[in-house]
Amino acid sequence: MSSFLSRRRVLATGAGAALGVGALGASVTPAAASPAGSRGAAGAEETRTLDELYQAALAEGGKLVVYAGGDTPTQQDGTKAAFKARFPDIDLTLIVDYSKYHDVRVDNQFATDTLVPDVVQFQTLQDFDRWKQQGRLLRYKPAGFSKVYDAFKDPQGAWVATGALAFSFMHSTAAVGSGVRLTPRDLVDPQWKGKIASSYPHDDDAVLYLYTLYARKYGWEWVAELAAQDVQFARGSNSPGDAVFGGQLPIGIGTAGSAVPSTSSPVRFVIDDGVPFMSWGQRVAILKQAKNSTAAKLFLNWQLSTEMQNGSFNGWSVRTDITPPAGLKRIWEYPNGNLDGFPRFVADRAGVERWKQTFALYFGEVRGDPTPGWLGLHPGA
């Protein structure tokens, strides 16, 4: 369900301020070009600049519809504002919903010949492999494609990840102590009873995978003890961060954050050695039936530009030529980040269902309306 450019609350952890700088910086710098490439052919990188693509997109009609995975209707407002500032004459419609609803929505639109989006940007990694096999995705390599980490791109250009994300737990430094190094094992201590927020693991595959990592490392006894901690479960992976940053509860599990070292941040996002967390690349693709394929190409090139990649909220880039802030490693350099495990996990849908229903036995059924609202079959049409 994740959205990678506009996670609520995580900006306060220190890296997010760079987002606006990166977005505005793109207004004067063309997209990096591959000198040997043709103009976006399947086997070569795009060579047109952002401005050239912009003009071509306007000539095409100047419209673009993006379906993005996320937790709240406003979660991509920062992306929309930055894109609008750079490309003011493009009519961008960007619809946020849980990825697990967006993907079946797109499947239904395929089945009924009523396709709405040009670009899909989802956490449901398994869909991109399936759609590629079905011939649904446009094979296209944006400028900078060769610099993207290999695990974050399809070799033929059917999809590319434009954001690197991680889910872990976080805690208030004021409530827990700035020098305290909590681990998930510590969360079952009685002192934290009634003081933990979490997104439901059986409502979001990324949170689910994080909880499976915890169960495998700490055991089912730990899961049972956590279930007795009166955890405040809620829908939306933004909810634990909102609770911690808002001062309602000191600990949040199953949410995104920034681990950029900061002495001023009120919250610590935990990715310490030996502590399992989960990470992935949020995949983006242009649908072969897209009505606005040139504007879609513009969007991908903009997302992968060095300006945007340097402005990621968490300090991580999908590109190998972007150096993370001091104190961070590249996301694929964390063995405890389980980067390669998540695609395998979500591809095993039967296994996912077993994990979901098992956690429902411990934590109860998912309750509450979806946080983006009920969007129906054709949002953005």
From TrEMBL:
PROSITE patterns: TAT. Residues 1-17 form the signal peptide. This is ABC-type Fe3+ transport system, substrate-binding protein. Keywords: Signal.
